[in-house]
Amino acid sequence: MVYAVVRAGGRQEKVQVGTIVVLDRQSAKIGDKIELPAVLFVDGDAVTTDADKLAEVKVTAEVVGEERGPKIIIQKFKNKTGYKKRQGHRQDLTRVKITGIK
User: Fold this and answer.
1) What is the pLDDT of residue 28?
2) What's the pLDDT at 9?
């Protein structure tokens, strides 16, 4: 069983070949290939965490689509002053499919 843990936009994701992962917005178009940096690589019983060996590990992914995350409501309120503020936010996301771990 071969898998890797990759750094993706401030988070870490465990990926295998064929896994579809949702990342923060990438600057690639749909159909483009991107490369993700590996933090951990597991090949059967061999676990690799050494930075020099991880530099040789290549995790490639193909951009499947772009989407937006769920709406998050930000509300601020101060008692007795009449101050209310309401703001919404939707994060831009990119859906990628892992095509290879070498």
Assistant:
1) 95
2) 79
The two three-digit tokens of residue 77, written as one number: 């309120």
- Of the candidates 43, 21, 11, which has an alpha carbon nearest to the alpha carbon of residue 98? 21
DSSP for 38-82, please give it: EEEEEETTEEE--HHHHTT--EEEEEEEEEE---EEEEEEETTTT
77 with 84: CB under 8 angstroms? yes
Cα distance between residue 86 and residue 20, in whole Å: 34
CA distance 78 to 47: 52
pLDDT of residue 80: 97
- pTM score, whole prediction: 0.85
